[in-house]
Amino acid sequence: MMKEQTKDILLEAIRRRSERRIGRLASDLVRAPSEEKEAILADMQLERWLAENCYECLS
C-alpha cells in the first residue's frame, strides 16, 4: 500500500505538470490554425480536470 506522503508527492507532481501543460496549450491555441483549436481546447479541458482533481485529493 502506498504511503500517504508518497501519494501526495505524486499527486502534486501530476498537478504541477498539468498546470504547466495548460499554459503551453494556451500559448499554442493563440497560434494554432482554426482547425486545430478544438483539439487544443479539449486537451486543455482534460488537463484542467486532472489538475483540479489532484488538488481536491490533496485537500
Question: What does the radius of gyration come to?
Answer: 14 Å
Q: What is the total domain count?
A: 1
Label the overall shape: elongated
The major sheet is characterized as: none
Say how many strands there are: 0
Task: Please tell me about this protein's structure.
- The chain has 59 residues and is mainly alpha-helical.
- The protein has one domain.
- It has helices spanning 4-31, 34-58.
- The longest helix is centred in the first third of the chain and has 28 residues, at 4-31.
Task: Give the tags.
0% strand; single chain; 59 residues; 2 helices; mainly alpha
What does this entry show, briefly?
With 59 residues, the protein is mainly alpha-helical.
Q: What is the secondary structure topology, with strand pairs?
A:
Elements: H1 4-31, H2 34-58
Helix pairs in contact: 1-2
